[in-house]
Amino acid sequence: MPFTFKKQIFGFMDLIRFTKMVPKRREKLAEGSAEKIPATYRVNETAKILHPGYQSAKLVKITQNTADTKTYEFETDKPFYFRAGQYMTLGTNVNGSEASRPYAVSSAPGAALGKRVAFTVKKCGFFSGYLFDNAKEGDIFTVGDPSGEFCYEPLKDAKHVVAVAGGSGITPFYSMAQAIADGTMDFKLTIFYGAKTEEDLIFKKELDALGSDKIRLVYVLSDEKKAGYESGFIGADLISKYVSGDFTVMMCGPQAMYAFLDKELKKFDLPPRRIKKEANTVGVRDVKEEHYKIKVKIGFESYTVDADSRETVLVALERAGLKVPAKCRAGGCGFCHAKLVSGSFSIPGADKRRLADSKFGYFHPCCSYPDSDMEIIANKA
Amino acid sequence: MTKYDAVVIGAGNGGLVAAIRLLQGGLKTLIVEKHNLPGGFATSFRRGRFEFEASLHELNDFGAANNAGDVRVLFDELGVTDKIEWIQIPEAYRVIARSENLDATMPFGVQAFIDKMEAYVPGSRESVTKFFELAEEIRLAQAYSSSVNGQTDSKYMVANYGNFVRCGSYSVNQVLKTLKMPQKAVDIISAYWCYLGANLDDMSFVHYASMVNRYILRGAAMPKMRSHEISLAMVERIRELGGDVLFNTEAVKILTDAEGGVSGVVLDDGTEIATRHVVCNCAPHVVYGKMMDKVPEAEVRATNARKFAGRGFTMFLGLDRSADELGIENHNYFLYDTMDSVKQYDRMRTIADNDVQATVCLNRALPDCSPEGTCMMYFTTLYMSDDWANVKAEDYFKTKDYVADKMIARFERDTGAKIRDHIEEISVATPMTYARYCGHPQGVIYGYESQYWDGLMPRLQMMAEDHRIRGLRFAGGYSMRLSGYSSAYFSGDISGRQTVGDFKREG
Fold it and tell me: What is the pTM of this model?
C-alpha cells in the first residue's frame, strides 16, 4: 500500500518548501563575494614544489670525482623537493638530437629547497660523453620532475637498510646518507660500496665524514687488496659479516651486479618486499640491423622519421630532433605513453604497461624496439 | 588558425563523455588534457607486480545487461559498453563503528537489504521499505525531469511524484526521522554518506536516497582492467568518431568576443584554437581564476559562494599474502568513529583528528586482479578543511606516512585483519597529488559540496540560469550532477548534448 510522505502537520507546507529551494539558491549565489577568484591555492603551490615539472637549470659547478666521474651541480629555476633516492632527467639538445637521461640525484633533498641539485655522472655513452666533453659552467639545461620509487618507505621497509652500490650506483645512497645525517630521514643505513680500486670510489671522503651510529660504510674493492677495505664482490657472506636481523636490501649498480646478487640473496630467503632494485635504462638491442620508417603524429603535426631495429622508438624520435616526453627510459614510468596505430614492436624485458594499455594498443617508446614500419601518435613533451 | 566547433578542456570522466556526445551530434571536436593520460581520477598505475586502481571503488548504477542502470544505458548510447570487460561487485558494504558497537555487512538487492536490516534491527522493516519506496519515486521523478531537460511541469510532478516533491526539500536526517526509522537502522543506511562528502544534516535526501537506491537496486560494477580501461575505451570511441585528442596539453586561456561569449582557446604552447563552444571538465574556480580575463560579476559571486567539498587522500597497498590469509573478508568497508555524520564530518577537518576510511580490497570483487598469493587494497578519506595547506614541502613525506600509519592501524584494529607486515608496495596520494594531476583547487576531489542550499535538486532546476556565458558549459564533479563517477558521466552527457543544441541554435 503506497504511503504519503508528510513531514509538516499540513502536507502542503512540504510542497511550498520545495518551491523555495530555487529562490534560496539564487539568493545564496548572489550573496557571494565579488572579490577576484584566486588564480592559485596553497595546496597547489606546495604541489608545485613537490612536482615542479620541467624547469631550466643553470650548471654552476663541475667537480671531477674520479677519472671517469664528474658531479654537475645546478641552480634550478624554482625551489623543489624530492625523496632521497629519486632520479630526475637532465636534458639538452645535443647536435640536433633532443636528448635527456635520468640520473639519481646525488645531493640532499634539503638543498633542492634552495634551488640546488647535483647529479654524479659516469662517462659511458652518448649523453654523458657530451657532458664530459662539452658542458661548462653557465650552460642551461632542462631538468624534469623528481621521480622513481627507489626510496626508503618507513611503513614498509625494515628499520635497517642494506644498500649495495656498484660504481656510480652510489649516488642515490649518498643522497640518502645526507638526508639521514641532516635529520630529514630516520633509518639505519649500511652501505656496501663496490668499486674496482680505491681510486674509483666516488664520495669516499664525504661518505666517511657522514659515518655514524646510523650510517656505516663498507668499501669493497674487486681489483685491489688493501688494508681497511674488503675485497672481491658483494655477496651473502660479506653482508652477513656486518649485518644481522631484519633488513631491506636496496641495490643500485650495473646489470652484472644484480645478476650476482640475485643468486647471493637467495641464501637469506628474503621475501620480494625486502628487495628493491633501481632499474637500469634500456640500451642497444642486439639484433640484425634493419631500417624502418616511423610516421608519428604529435599535436597537429605529422612527421616521418628513420628508425633502426637496434634502437628504441624513443631514440628514433629524439634523433630526428622531435621533443617528446622521456623519463625513466626503462619502460616503467609510463611518461612516454604513446599510441600505436599500425606496425609492430617488441619489448625485450618485462612489459610494465597497464593492462588496458596493451588492450588498446598503447606502448612505452622508451623500451620498445621497432620490428616494422610504424605509425604512432605521441604526446608533445 | 585551427578551428573547431567545440573544444573540451579536460579529459576526465565528464569531459570524455561530453566529447563523445559532441561528436555524435556532428560537431568537429577537440579534447585537450594536461596530463599524459585520460580519465582524470579514472586511471591506474603500476608498482612492481601490482596495477592499482587510482580511485574507483565501484561503479554505481551500471547494473547487468538484463537489469541495466542509467550508466549502462548511457554507455550503450555512447558505444563504449562492449569495449570494456565488466565485473559485478559481490556485496554492498560493511560498515564498522567500533565505539558504537556497530558492525554490519549489507547486500545488494532491495529486498535482501531490507531483510538483512530487519535481522540487524528488528522493527526496521516498515521504515526501510518506505525509504526505498521514496527512493524509487525519486528515481522515476528524476527520469521524468531529465526527459524534459529540467523543464518540469509542477502540476504533473505533484500529481505523479507527490512524495518526491514533499520530501524533496529536506535533509537525509530530517526525512529518516519522519520515517521513524530506528536509530541503528539510520546508522547502517547512512554508511554511504562519505561517498557524497556532506553530513546528513546538510545533504539533501533526494541526492542520498537516489544514490543508495541505485547501488542497492542495480548492484555495482567494476571494469576488469581498472578505470583506466573505461577512460581508454572512451578515447578510442572519440577517435573512431573523428575527434582529435591532445594529451600533455593544457588549455591556458579561454578567449571571449565583444559580447563576452566564447571565441577561442589558447593552449600552453601558444596555439590559438578558434571555437565558439567550450565544455570545461574542471572547476569554475580554475576557469574564472586564471583562464578568462573578463568574468561577469554574477558569475564571480556565484563561484565565490560555493563551498569546496572534501580534499582527497588515498593509500594503496600491495600485500604479499592473499586476502584469505590476511583475514580481509570484504570488498568494501566504511570505518567510522561515530555514525553521527555531523560529528564525524567535524572530526574530518584536521590531519590529526581524521580517522575515517572507505576501504576496498579489490580481490574480493576481482580475485585475479593481482598475482596469486597477493592482494591489493586502497584506503580513502576526505579532509573537510584545508589542513593540508599547512603542510610544508619539507614535512610532506612524514605527514603522508603519519596518516598512512593511522589508516593501517585502524583497519587492523576494526577488522582484525593483519596487513602491516605484508606490505610489498605502498603508494599514497594526498591533496597535493590530486592538485598536481587534476589541477583541482586545494586537492578537492568532490567538487562543490552538497550543502543544504546547493544540493542536487536546485542545481538541476537552475541549469538554464547557471549558464551565464555563451558557449561555456561545465562537466565533471563541479557541475550540476555533483561528484562521483556516475554523476560526472551524466554531467558530460548533459553538457555535451546541451552544447550540441547551442551549436545548432547559435552556430
Answer: 0.97
